[in-house]
Amino acid sequence: MGSTSTLPPDFLWGFATASYQIEGAVNEDGRGPSIWDTFCKIPGKIAGGATGDVACDSYHRTHEDIALLKTCGAQAYRFSISWSRVIPLGGRNDPINPKGLQHYVKFVDDLLEAGITPLITLFHWDVPDELEKRYGGPLNKEEFVADFVRYARVVFEAMGSKVKHWITFNEPWCSSVLGYNVGQFAPGRTSDRTKSPVGDGSREPWIVGHSLLVAHGAAVKVYRDEFKARDGGEIGITLNGDWAEPWDPENPADVEACDRKIEFAISWFADPIYHGKYPDSMVKQLGDRLPTWSPEDIALVHGSNDFYGMNHYCANYIKARTGEPDLNDTAGNLEILLSNKKGEWVGPETQSPWLRPSAIGFRKLLKWLSDRYGRPKIYVTENGTSLKGENDLPLDQLLDDEFRTQYFRDYIDAMADAYTLDGVNVRAYMGWSLLDNFEWAEGYETRFGVTYVDYENDQKRIPKKSAKTIGEIFNRYIQKA
Ligand code: PNW
């Protein structure tokens, strides 16, 4: 397997990051706070009491990051813009912060000068805190959509002539479910009163997901109406989702539950975009808690992807639940497990409790998405792994990250097979991540970088083995033009 597979000559590869995870400089040059600044201040929410106050200090080290990209041979860099750096209060009538905007314009110029293609994510979970306070952020669709559209237009105006690949939202599933049901991510709302005094996990995630979809569609319309003809770029959304295997392949209920799991995680967003409606499985389980589509809103959303942005890390075993679903269930009335009926693990353990690698699952999910959505152009916008205990290793061992290197070999193999053997139109791949960084609720204890960041010593960066190897892997696969 793998040996005869290839990737096309124009295949684009590089690395991804997100603003709050790497930038630091949270109070600098007029940036306003986002919901993550606020959430990190609540005791007990983040491992080790960590915050993104300094993170990798990338706001001050754009040149170091570009040098790293060049050392790895990366052709592309996916990063996100902090909305509250550009518009500190966030709203459509609030002032623009020229210094914040200029930071990103300059960064794009520097990337282009270094020969690196920028892919920009407009939103990677960091709602301006003022909008959360003003009207509840994406719980208020009308306000949120209007404010997001204005922010998107400001960014397109400033950088549209230079940036050809735009991602509206990163992983709306995470914002909706982890932010409004589990309460593990900002703004931390949940029905669980031991975790939060506010929130309704049975309703809010579905409302938030709907708002994010409409905001995506509205921003795409602005791009297509006002910029695309002049700038010739493309725009899409990035969705996360893992592959699903039945816990007991002999049990039809478990087999059926696998599709339902992917529908609740991915098709929740992808079906409206590609098919103009929510999946039947979700309508059936959620009833009137799932918002219905007005003709105006679905017209914005249906057909709104120029490419499908795919974040993918791992696979799960799925066991159907019997009986009525819990009101707070967001998964499709099933259990998500890491081992099957025979007691076999889906993959080796990592530092992230939810992540056990299974490269064959990547190939299968690529095919599943390709079939369900009419063979869209797919950009893999994140893929990568943490390592069990990496943070505790002596430096020489930490830098020799063979486990991560093998993960990339296996996953890129699987992707090349999907392209070559299964006819999947996958055209780009961004490894997660260029740098060890602020891993949300897990703080700095979990590392995902191909570059080690020494948080104790002036955020010094040292490339790991994986940083040096990934380019060789792509060189083998990408056909010479
Ligand atoms: C993605 N889960 O998030 C994000 O886009 C990145 O910002 C993040 O650093 C990366 O994956 C690694 O975690 C996820 O619990 C976070 O299933 C959590 C989950 C999935 C994706």
CA radius of gyration is 21 Å
Domain module count: 1
Mean pLDDT: 98
Helical segment count: 17
Helix content: 40-55%
CATH architecture descriptor: Alpha-Beta Barrel
Gross morphology is globular
Structural class, from helix and strand content?
A: alpha/beta
| Percent in strands | 5-15%
What characterizes the major β-sheet? 8 strands, parallel, barrel
Low-confidence stretches: none
Ligands bound to this protein structure: 4-nitrophenyl beta-D-glucopyranoside
Within CATH, the superfamily carries the name Glycosidases
Distance between the termini: 24 Å
Order of helices and strands: EHHHEHHEHHEHHHEEHHHEEEHEHHEEEH
Strand order of the largest sheet: 1-2-3-4-5-7-10-11
Family: Belongs to the glycosyl hydrolase 1 family.
Function: Plays an important role in cellulose degradation. Shows hydrolytic activity against several glycosidic compounds.
Enzyme class: hydrolase
GO molecular function: cellobiose glucosidase activity
